[in-house]
Every structure is written in C-alpha cells, then in structure tokens.
Write a structure and sequence with these properties.
There is one protein chain. With 163 residues, this protein is mainly beta. The chain is built from four helices and eleven strands, in the order ααβααββββββββββ.
C-alpha cells in the first residue's frame, strides 16, 4: 500500500529519477577544481576533502540543478577502487499554491509562488566494497534518500550529516 500511495503522489517519473542519479546524464554539469573554488568556497570544507586532494584519489565535481533542486556533488575514486560520492543540498525551490500550507512550522497566510530554502545537509555514500555508487531519490520530492551499488554483489553505506 505505501508503495502504491507513494507512486500515485509521485511528482517525478522513474525516468527523471534515473537521470537525477546518473552523473553522466545532462542534469549534471561537470565543473573544474577552479570553478569549485570560485563558485563554492564555503562548501569545500563541508565536503571534507581537506585542503590538499589525496594524490591517490581522483575527484570529479558536478553541479545539479533540476526542477528547483540545487546540489553540489563530488565523486571520488580511491586507489583501492572503492567509490565515495557526496552531495550538498544548496537550495530547493518550494512551490506553494495553497495559502494554508505549513512551511517550516509557519502557517503561510498569503499564497507564495516560490520560496528558496537552504538545505545544507551533506549526503555521503561509500563503497563497502563498491566501485560504482549511486544515490537514490524520493519519487515524491526528488530528495536524496539513500544510495546503492551498481556493481553486482557490492554494497554502499549512506550517511547524512549537517554541513
């Protein structure tokens, strides 16, 4: 029943969810280290990469911006072959068509078309062992809700922390 109810309330198609979790999809824009430092200097420390990147690891940075969800992602392939991915929620546009919607414990009295809400939490997914981690997303709101390994028999660990 819960799966059926969630499916009927879905705002994102299965295809969109697939695209929202694949770094090769056009929804992700790869950015350079230089762009990362220029655009997101305050987020580098929160990604917990340290000041000097580990020479044994390879990092790929991505911006994600789709249907009001903005995130910064980093994909790490370490020398042992395991992957680690992290995502920081930069902001989310919340549409409010009903003036009686409760938003952040405040009852909105007037209709508001869009509200940009800062997210700030950091989702991490580490291969244990896995060389191809991928986040999973909620089909109703598009938020990251876990992770999985795309390698047969592999496993990934998902954690969420405040940035």
């Amino acid at each position: 029943y819960l799966y059926t109810q969630e499916k009927s309330d879905s705002k994102f198609s299965d295809y969109e969810i697939e695209m929202m979790t694949d770094y090769e999809s056009p929804l992700f824009t790869k950015i350079s280290d230089i762009d990362l430092v220029e655009k997101y200097p305050s987020y580098i420390e929160r990604l917990n990469l340290g000041h000097n990147h580990d020479i044994e690891s390879k990092y790929n940075f991505y911006e994600f911006n789709y249907r009001g969800i903005k995130e910064l992602h980093v994909e790490t392939i370490s020398s042992d072959g395991n992957c680690e991915i992290k995502a920081i929620g930069l902001s989310k546009i919340v549409s409010n068509e009903d003036p009686s919607v409760n938003f952040n414990n405040v009852l909105l009295q007037e209709p508001v078309n869009e509200i940009e809400e800062e997210i700030g939490e950091v989702n991490s997914c580490s291969g244990d062992p896995c060389s191809s981690c991928r986040f999973t997303r909620n089909i109703v709101n598009g938020e990251i809700n876990g992770c999985k390994c795309r390698n047969w028999g592999g496993h990934c660990n998902h954690t969420v922390s405040e940035g």
